[in-house]
């Protein structure tokens, strides 16, 4: 989706929905909006960001991977195809609409046992301690208010030496899109790095890559051994 089309789409949606309603649908897509409006925007608008996340995961067949907030499931399907090992790739999302769409999109991977999806909250994840070698997420940081319970759960579920790869939009990007201040929290690179270290992560790096329609940002953080 070109940058001008993304701006046009956002302008149109602001005419037919309240800012609060639009923000809440971005947080937890549901109904016709989630299926027919949010999903196409997520797929096209986040393609470059998801590809950067995928590249930085640096996956092997030995990895046990979780994506939190998988949305339409495009990145998760790519991960499962790369790992290509039964019972090694999982997804958790609290939107029933997105769960249904991701199940539809990745039906073959699910039926073959290469991908396991379920509905649930990132503040209370249904996984045992130190289960995953890598956990990723994209565009959900803003909705964790407060963020510490969610990041602490991710840290709990990571193996020692495991990595979190988190895709996000900068504060400037969110401001330019005029997204609701109460639903969308803003973070500078410095604030995010400080937050991750405060929760218990180490070796935090923030990566910026030019892309269309929006530049991509990824935070990589490690659970100490």
What does this structure look like?
The chain is α/β, with parallel strands linked by helices. The protein has a single domain (3-223), classed as Vaccinia Virus protein VP39 (Rossmann fold, 3-Layer(aba) Sandwich), CATH 3.40.50.150. 45% of the residues lie in helices and 21% in strands. The chain contains 10 helices and 7 strands. A 7-stranded mixed beta sheet has the order 3-2-1-4-5-7-6, with helices on both faces. The longest helix is centred in the first third of the chain and has 15 residues, at 31-45. Residues 1-5 have low confidence and may be disordered.
Distinctive features:
7 strands; disordered N terminus; seven-stranded mixed sheet; alpha/beta; Rossmann fold; 45% helix; 225 residues
Assembly of the depicted chains: single chain
Query: What distance separates the N and C termini?
Result: 41 Å
Helix tally equals 10
What's the CATH architecture name? Answer: 3-Layer(aba) Sandwich
What is the CATH homology-level superfamily? Vaccinia Virus protein VP39
The tally of beta strands, per DSSP, is: 7
Uncertain spans, ≥5 residues at pLDDT below 50? 1-5
What general form does the structure show? Answer: globular
Strand content: 15-25%
**In this structure, how is the largest beta sheet organized?**
7 strands, mixed
Structural class: alpha/beta
Spatially, the strands of the biggest sheet line up as 3-2-1-4-5-7-6
List the domain count as a whole number: 1
